[in-house]
Structure formats: C-alpha cells, structure tokens
Amino acid sequence: MKGTVDLITPGELGASPVVMLVSTDTSAEKKMRCSFGERYRAVISRMAPGQKIAVLGRYDGCEQDIRLVDCMPVG
User: Fold this and answer.
1) Are the C-beta atoms of residues 10 and 17 closer than 8 Å to each other?
2) 3-state per-residue secondary structure call for the chain
3) How far apart are CA 17 and CA 40, in angstroms?
4) In the chain, what are the domains?
5) How far apart are CA 17 and CA 34, in angstroms?
6) pTM as predicted
7) What is the pLDDT along the chain (75 residues), one digit of tens a residue?
8) Cα dist from 41 to 11, 22, 63, whole Å
C-alpha cells in the first residue's frame, strides 16, 4: 500500500509502533493502521506527518480503518 503518514504512535511499553496512513492508491481516501515490529522502530522515528511511504503488511481486518500487521516499509 502507498500512503501519506497521518499520525505516528511510537508504541511504548512493549507495544508495536503504529503509523496511520491515508491511502494514495485509490481515488477514495482510506485510512490504514499499520503495525510495525520492533526492528523498524528507528525507521519509524525518522518518519514525519505528510511523508509519502509504501508499506507491505498482512491484512488484519477493517472496522473503521484498514488494519495491517507485520508491516515493513518498502521502496
């Protein structure tokens, strides 16, 4: 998925870092909640709202926002 970083949650106290993205893949705006593993904490700390990124992850359901887990930044 490609998107623009909307919000970053560092994932303190053992929680995984989470990045909220606004999708740029479709004409309709969609939000995605992307959970990353510990190994990507340094990469996420360098991200900023408004930055465009691509993410590969496993679909984990959709309530209000699409949830992706086991994410990794790509490209």
Assistant:
1) yes
2) CEEEEEEEECCCCCCCCEEEEEECCCCCCCEEEEEECHHHHHHHHCCCCCCEEEEEEEEEEECCCEEEEEEEEEC
3) 8
4) 2-74 (2.40.50)
5) 8
6) 0.82
7) 889 999 998 776 667 888 999 986 666 678 899 999 888 888 898 999 999 999 999 998 876 778 999 999 996
8) 9, 20, 25
